[in-house]
Amino acid sequence: AAKAAGRNQWRFFTADMHQRVSQRLALETGLRMALEPGAQELALVYQPQIDTATGRVMGLEALLRWNHPTLGPVPPSTFIPIAEDSGVIELLGPWVLREVCRQIDAWLEGPDAEHFAGLTVAVNVSAAEFARPQFLDHLQAAVQALRASPRTLELEITESLLVQAAGDIIERMHTITEMGMGLSLDDFGTGYSSLGYLKRLPLSKLKIDRSFLLGIPGNPENEAIVRATLSMAHDLGLMVVAEGVETAGQRDFLQAHGCNACQGWLYARAMPAHELAAWLRQQHEAMPGRSPRAAPQP
Ligand code: C2E
Ligand code: MG
Ligand code: MG
Ligand code: MG
């Protein structure tokens, strides 16, 4: 009887495994199809980053969306790891870079250009992608096609890249900042890397992970972590962006402790490119003194 039960368990286990593997395979195949020309399943949405002190929009973060033809929207937390493991990231990463560069030029050369002037656009780059030898070539090609200044672009990398921070990764980071782009460290505090790298790498920003904002104000542990991060980052000359700011209480705490920028649903959700112009116009009209339109017309 024990043997039979064991066999049943085994069969159950394999059925479950099989299902998960085939689900991943289906998503991997789906992603490859989504990258075919004309598929129109992939799109970028953009979330504003707000200067905490002035309330002005400082920049945008590009976030990838995938609308699967039968499954509907698949979240990046599901498909990005699959893209990384399967190697599809080799195609997906360059697609995102090209699309962001195309969008930046479209904005800066379009009718609402004044509202996009001076904004940075951040792009997430997977560690698996950044570490590939071809990455720099793809980046250089995208930036060459970009008519706007490369200073418009920022790359968001994560600590998982730094765990394997071999000399060539660090060298690559320097090459990127020498090209004019900013480097931000995303999800700060969630990885397992040492803090020593912070002084050796050409980073310009730290992004405090959303998980540390939970229960703020009021959660003494998270408050201590956020205060310590801000103090350390500022002493090292890094700007700090808080992500996942949802409440006025969080914003007030971050402002009181000198956090440079906030990104979160309190201010705005990520939105499609075409909605952004109207949103920015409205922001600038609500702050007439700071509106680019208030500047004397030539
Ligand atoms: P991330 O780079 O840390 O992006 C921030 C995530 O927090 C986004 O989730 C954003 O929609 C979400 N978020 C922003 N404000 C709030 C808030 O106030 N409350 C809550 N609950 N969430 C908020 P999203 O778009 O689902 O992306 C998840 C992750 O997927 C990203 O985390 C990033 O690691 C990855 N990702 C997204 N787009 C790309 C991409 O184009 N390339 C790569 N390699 N990774 C990407
Ligand atoms: Mg990010
Ligand atoms: Mg160029
Ligand atoms: Mg993050």
Automatic annotation (TrEMBL):
It comes from Tepidicella xavieri. The chain holds residues 692 to 989 of 990 of the full protein. Residues 24-284 form the EAL domain. This is Periplasmic sensor diguanylate cyclase/phosphodiesterase. It comes from the Bacteria. It is found in: Cell membrane.
